[in-house]
Specification:
Number of helices: 1
Radius of gyration: 31 Å
Largest sheet: none
Number of strands: 0
Mean pLDDT: 85
Strand content: under 5%
Distance between the termini: 75 Å
Low-confidence stretches: none
Helix content: 55-70%
Structural class: mainly alpha
Length: about 80
């Protein structure tokens, strides 16, 4: 994999800056970014739950409307009878 770019601060001859402070700095950045991702996923779960609840409510309403339309069609004799 000689064509792949090296990470920042990396040196093949061992002359790169790999002090514990630099590594710790990168780990803190990763930790902060991971915390933001976790928060975003938590928010998305909450929003998705709300969407699912609203969809369930709409499905119930459509089912009731379908029942009412069927009843109206029967009363007005608009339904086809089975022969």
């Amino acid at each position: 994999m000689a064509d792949e770019p090296e990470p920042p601060g990396y040196a093949r001859d061992g002359q790169g800056d790999h002090s514990p402070g630099v590594v710790l700095r990168y780990l803190r950045r990763i930790d902060n970014r991971l915390d933001r991702v976790v928060d975003d996923v938590r928010e998305l779960k909450i929003r998705m739950t709300a969407v699912e609840e609203n969809l369930t409510s709409l499905n119930r309403r459509f089912a009731r409307l379908e029942t009412r339309v069927d009843r109206i069609e029967r009363r007005l004799e608009l339904t086809e009878t089975a022969s």
